[in-house]
Amino acid sequence: MDDLEIYIEKRKTKSKKFAKDFEAGYENFKIGVALREAREKAGITQEELARKLKTKKSAISRIENHSEDIRISTLKNYLEAIGKKLQLSIR
After folding, report:
1. SS3 45
2. How far is CA 45 from CA 18, 48, 78, 91, in A?
3. In the 8-state DSSP scheme, what is residue 6?
4. Signed CA dihedral, 79, 58, 65, 74: sign only
């Protein structure tokens, strides 16, 4: 475990609010990373994706970096533009 991981674990044990907020933020971060990785794996740049979606590169960057409030329709369009399909599961 590195210093950052140790710090995060200590903060989680000291503050339930921090732990809850951290976990929610981390889940959102993982969504953005997964979107970026899928786009890159498809060989599509942010600029190319923006053109396909008739939007700006900054909008694509915002989706990948701040995916906490992404609409399902936006997510579906993003994925279809890179040749993927959206599949949801409730557990």
Report:
1. coil
2. 35, 5, 12, 33
3. H
4. negative
- For 60, the token pair is 């694509």
Q: Which of 25, 13, 37 is nearest to 68 (CA)?
A: 25
DSSP, res 55: S
Token pair of 47 as six digits: 């600029």
Instruction: Say if CB 63 and CB 77 are below 8 A apart.
Output: no
Domains and CATH numbers, the chain: 3-81 (1.10.260.40)
Question: What is the chain's mean pLDDT, rounded?
Answer: 91
Three-class DSSP category at 12: helix
- Section 31-37 average pLDDT: 92
Chain CA centroid to CA 73, Å: 15
